[in-house]
Amino acid sequence: MDVKREDHAEKLAPNRLDAEVDSLRKELQKAQAACRESEERLSTLLAYAPEAIVMLDVESGPVNAAGSDRDSFDILVVEDNRADVVLLKKAFEEQQADCCIHVAINGDEALAFLYRQQPFADAPRPAIILLDLNLPGRDGREVLEEIKADDILRRIPIVVLSSSRSDVDVRQCYDLHANAFMTKAANFDELVGLVRQIIDYWLSAVRLPRS
Fold this sequence. Notes:
This protein is of the alpha/beta class. It has two domains: 1-47; 50-205, Response regulator (Rossmann fold), CATH 3.40.50. It has a six-stranded mixed sheet, with helices on both faces. It contains seven helices and six strands; from the N terminus they run H-H-E-E-H-E-H-E-H-E-H-E-H. The N and C termini lie far apart (80 Å).
């Protein structure tokens, strides 16, 4: 009996090793894909180095995409990745969008902007919010839940803009009453197309409430 158990264990060992190797191979592939995505974003960012340098010196606050005229749309971007903010700003500029982009780098700052707390006492009510999920401190899901629980703020459309492709994240965001879930673009051309879709629908096709 003991000999049979040892033989069985010896047969299982290679299978377990193969499974571990396969698991490590998949993790390596994911890491390589993430690395390639980071390299693409970095190369695109370097193409707009002057804008990047300016943006990296700004902790928060408005970033004008096409001026801040009375009839322009205010967009709140909640994003902690400065490179993503620069690229998003550039994409809106290329579309010549009649909007003013404001940036919050974490969930607490976003809520302070929306509740018009210091230093955002004079903050405008945004027409839409572009919300990242993975934020330092209070994450995007918590921000989404609090906004949609507020009788006034819940009217603001929230577009979740995340690198996540998880069905769990998508379902969770819609359960929390997100108005849309969009996956972040892998390169600048895709980002321009994504911004065009946002503009065509949210700033052109639909009628939004005015504060």
